[in-house]
Amino acid sequence: VDDMLLESYSWALAPIDGKLEAGHYAYTDLPNGNRIKQWIAWPGRGDDNYFEIAVIDGNGNRYELHHVNRRTLPQNIIDGLNSGNGVVTAGERIGQVVPWPTMFHYVHVHLNVFDSAGNAINPESVFEVIPDSIAPDVSFLAVYQDDSTEWLKEGSKLSKPVKSFIVSGADAKDLHQYVQAVPFIELTQNGVVLSQIDFRHTLLDAAGVFTDIRGFYPNTVRLSDKTLLRQPADFYPVAGTKFHQLLNVTGVVVGQPFQLKVQDMAGNATVLSGQF
Fold it and tell me: pTM for the full model?
């Protein structure tokens, strides 16, 4: 999901050609990070701040624009929704953004993209990549089998069996104050991928199952010196905010070199080399 900052009274535009749907919504959050959506289809009524216009393409992919002001829908959009056969073309005006009543909720449209099976897709993977020449700003932490921890430097030689690595830091776009967790982390040894987190396109694992967020995105991590790493509490993290993501380690060959690579959506990478 992505939030797109807009000025007050800005128009939300159809992201693609496709069929129209609309309704009010709410979510129930599940422990594994997934969500169940409650839906009141057009012309039903709900919370004015939580109204969505969706465009469905010919392959069944669903592009959802949340926080559209229902009162500003153009007449042709209303007519299309009433008929049940409405279509739009990419770039067409579909409604103005909701004027949030408090400073906490900035003026924005929230974008979700789902495939025809209902699986969430990273919106950055289906649109033009945002200009970004900055590699992720991260530090690497080893968590050993005895639960001791050590911050790693380039060329570190690990003297104890490793249970997991933690990547602590964030990814920023050029000239953008907001940051996000990194979408790709990979551990390799002798060219072989030992472990990987890849959310550049979807949150499904290699078996096609939704990834349990608790497995890689722990709320807190306690270090050997009793320091706690905490996930950011701010809903809109800015420069200087750090996330921490956990990558489990299996199948290593002791005495051999390894590489930890963190990569953003634009292909910029930060790499740490060391030896088990």
Answer: 0.88
